[in-house]
UniProtKB/TrEMBL annotation:
PANTHER family: NAD P H OXIDOREDUCTASE-RELATED (PTHR10204), NAD(P)H DEHYDROGENASE [QUINONE] 1 ISOFORM 1 (PTHR10204:SF34). Its EC number is 1.-.-.-, 1.6.99.-. InterPro entries: Flavodoxin_fold, Flavoprotein-like_sf, NAD(P)H_dehydrogenase_qn. GO terms for molecular function: oxidoreductase activity. Belongs to the NAD(P)H dehydrogenase (quinone) family. The keyword Oxidoreductase applies. Residues 1-216 form the Flavodoxin-like fold domain. This is NAD(P)H-dependent oxidoreductase.
Length: 268
């Protein structure tokens, strides 16, 4: 299988760097083909601006989504964006390796999504008509692929629990896992997380490495997070969850298929 690893940390000798190297070695040993985008080493351009478009429709005023849609359709996107899109389409699974900074990903990784997940490629896909809002949230151009978020966190695990001061980790990662990865169709696995990452000693590394290897071995076997599909029948025509679903739940858990829920309509 083909695995695309997107790595975002400025220090090669960091814990994130070690996890990245472990992933490449493990996946290769398992017989998978691996492509790596080391964003800092590549000098990735994180800012989305007019330089992303070689033949702009409106040279005097930047409307980024409109230019993005035109450039994708017309084959005039920036070369670095096209290269990353090709890796995504080549991949059977995508792994993101990064540290949690201010409850989000490093800016360079956010900029990778801003530019690579272009209009017509990752959003603005499918028919938008009446009560259909396109092919998104479980459908779209990246459907059929898996995604794993591997994230290091400085805080303690209880701080990211349901009643923890930082909020539940599933809510912290919701914008990425549901809003960015599931949106264009990726099936998202439960994240691999390391808490108190800056306090990890060498003595703890063998246990961490063994735990990560186990997750990598299950990359194509473990069940994904059961997010509800937009067009699966669980949402009404305004994309609001039906009243008969999600009773007693709140937050991100509302949008997970629960035992006893009616089956979603099959994908075409």
């Amino acid at each position: 299988m083909n695995v695309f690893l997107v790595y975002a940390h400025p220090e090669p000798q960091s814990l994130n760097g070690a996890l990245k190297d472990l992933a490449v070695a493990t996946l290769t040993d398992l017989g998978h083909r691996v492509e790596l985008s080391d964003l800092y080493a590549m000098g990735w351009k994180a800012v989305a601006d007019s330089a992303d478009f070689r033949a702009p429709v409106e040279p005097g005023r930047l409307h980024y989504p409109r230019e993005s849609k035109h450039a994708f359709a017309d084959g005039t996107q920036a070369a670095d964006v096209v290269a990353e899109q090709r890796k995504l389409l080549w991949a059977d699974a995508v792994i993101l390796q990064f540290p949690l900074w201010w409850f989000s990903m490093p800016a360079i990784l956010k900029g990778w999504f801003d530019r690579v997940f272009a209009c017509g490629f990752a959003y603005g896909v499918g028919v938008h008509d009446g009560e259909r809002w396109g092919d998104r949230y479980g459908e779209g151009s990246l459907r059929g692929r898996r995604a794993l978020v591997s994230v290091t966190i400085g805080g303690r695990a209880p701080h990211y629990s349901g009643r923890g001061v930082n909020g539940a980790l599933e809510d912290v990662l919701w914008p990425l896992q549901h809003g960015t990865l599931f949106y264009p169709g990726l099936a998202v696995l439960e994240p691999f997380t390391l808490f108190q990452a800056d306090r990890l000693s060498r003595e703890h590394w063998p246990e961490v490495a063994a735990r990560y290897r186990a997750r990598l071995e299950g990359l194509f076997r473990d069940p994904p997070i059961p997010f509800r599909r937009q067009n699966g029948g669980h949402y009404d025509g305004q994309q609001v969850l039906r009243d008969d679903l999600g009773q007693g739940l709140s937050g991100a858990r509302l949008h997970l298929v629960q035992p006893g829920d009616p089956p979603q309509t099959p994908l075409a």
